[in-house]
Amino acid sequence: MASTRKNRSIVIDIQALATLSYAQEGIFKPVDRLMSKEEAIDVENTGCYKGKPFPFPFILAPAGKKNEEVITSLKKGEKIDIIVDEKVRGHIIAQGFFKINRKRRIEQIFGNYDTQNMATRDFLDRLGRYSIYGKFEVDYDGIKKVKQQIKNAIKDSGAKSVAAIMMDARPFHRAHERLLRITLERTDLVIVFLSKHASIQNKMTYNQKYEILQYAIGNYLPKNRVLVVPFESTYLFAGYNDAILDCICANNFGCNKFIVGKNHSGIGMYYDKNEMKSILSKYESLDIEIDVISRFVYCQDCKTLVNTSTCPHGAHRHIKYNSNAIRRFFRVGILPPAVLMRTDVSAKLLSACMPNRFENINKLYDDIFPNDGLLEDHSEEEFYINLMKLHQTTSLT
User: Half-sphere exposure (CA, 13 Å, Cβ side) for 229?
Assistant: First the structure.
């Protein structure tokens, strides 16, 4: 975005830029600008903006001494440049500013004020004392491209029923696959919004998650009916309102169904007059059908993957699909059991997470597995697949 650099500026990070882009592209509709103090108070009290659901005020209060100096001295109508990574990425036509309650803002996002929580501390570090408001324009293609991808997929497929599934897929396990299959039975097209949150600790980048998911879809699902798109999980999605925001985003991206699990952190399941409801129940005015799916487990008595709401056996017979627990296998370099993940999927992921793990993979392969005496090249992925087959051999166990 061109700039004479004569304007004063504020500095934000890429997450804040993506968040502004959500509003600019209509994904937070009807929110399309930074709210004034009066608007923010009204949204906080009603949970709505211009008659449409929105869980908390849409504001921008960047931390930093220079940012605060610019915001508190701005003039109405002044054009303030937005700087990200030392580049001008947009501007705000400022209409004013107001002081925010930082503690209250944290409670709006996370539902509490727990400074022992790492996500809360990170949010506090980036949160300033003053919010600027007014219309803005930003230069960020990510959200726009996803919007166009979905529009094209709906048009090309002629889909009438389009379901959205928000997925982290760290890693993509059998319960994820079952969820996709059930959704495909009920809808024409499934949009998987894959979180761009990357985990350095667990050695899983967005590209790795995307490649694994595309591999699984390409081999085990009707790939022409599943579209995987990146989903910018910015700081606004870090708290207990993430399911509500997900629902709003899915609606504005063009989906008419929103699929979510009962164990989602932001669902808040409860009973009302013997009827199971969730925090999403108050957003029934949205033009989207919300389908809350029960948790999937592997039942040792049923001997298959089942829904907890239909299985007659107790939790003591259930093998759970806990993503955090499954990631620990990869962290220490162990293949998860095939009951948790498809062997080829886990082999592909482990070889990506721990490349060049063995000094001489070909010799190791030939020293263990049957061969016809010919020297051949073998990948670590191939080694893991055949190693799992050995684990599943039962004649000597």
Answer: 22
C-beta separation of 206 from 169 below 8 A: no
The burial of 275, by beta-carbon neighbours within 10 Å (0-12 exposed, 13-18 middle, 19 or more buried), is given as exposed
Query: Token pair of 36, please?
Result: 């004034």
User: Could you report the average pLDDT of every consecutive run of 10 residues in the chain (397 residues)?
Assistant: 72 95 96 97 93 93 97 97 97 98 92 86 93 97 96 96 95 95 96 76 78 96 96 86 89 94 56 48 73 91 93 94 93 93 95 89 90 81 91 76
Given a contact cutoff of 8 angstroms between Cβ atoms, the answer to whether 218 and 225 are in contact is no
Residue partners of 19: CB distance under 8 A and separation at least 6 = 232, 234, 235, 236
> Taken in order 238, 244, 247, 251, is the CA torsion positive or negative?
negative
Judged by DSSP in three states, 308 sits in coil
What CATH number did the domain enclosing 263 receive?
Answer: 3.40.50.620
Angle in degrees, 0-180, between the axes of helices 102-110 and 118-126, rounded to the nearest 10: 140
Measured distance CA(301)–CA(278) in Å, rounded: 30
Q: Kindly report the pTM of this predicted structure.
A: 0.89
The two three-digit tokens of residue 238, written as one number: 């870090």
Please tell me the total count of domains within the chain. 2
CA pair distance 348, 351, nearest whole angstrom = 5
Query: Could you tell me if 132 and 156 lie in one domain?
Result: no
Q: Is residue 233 located within the same domain as residue 294?
A: yes
CA distance 185 to 172: 20
Neighbours of 372 (CB within 10 A): 5
Asked if residue 198 is part of any domain, the answer here is yes
Cβ count within 10 A of residue 201: 8
Q: For residues 21 and 24, what is the distance between their CA atoms, to the nearest angstrom? A: 5
Instruction: Classify 286 as helix, strand or coil.
Output: coil
| 376 domain residue, yes or no | no
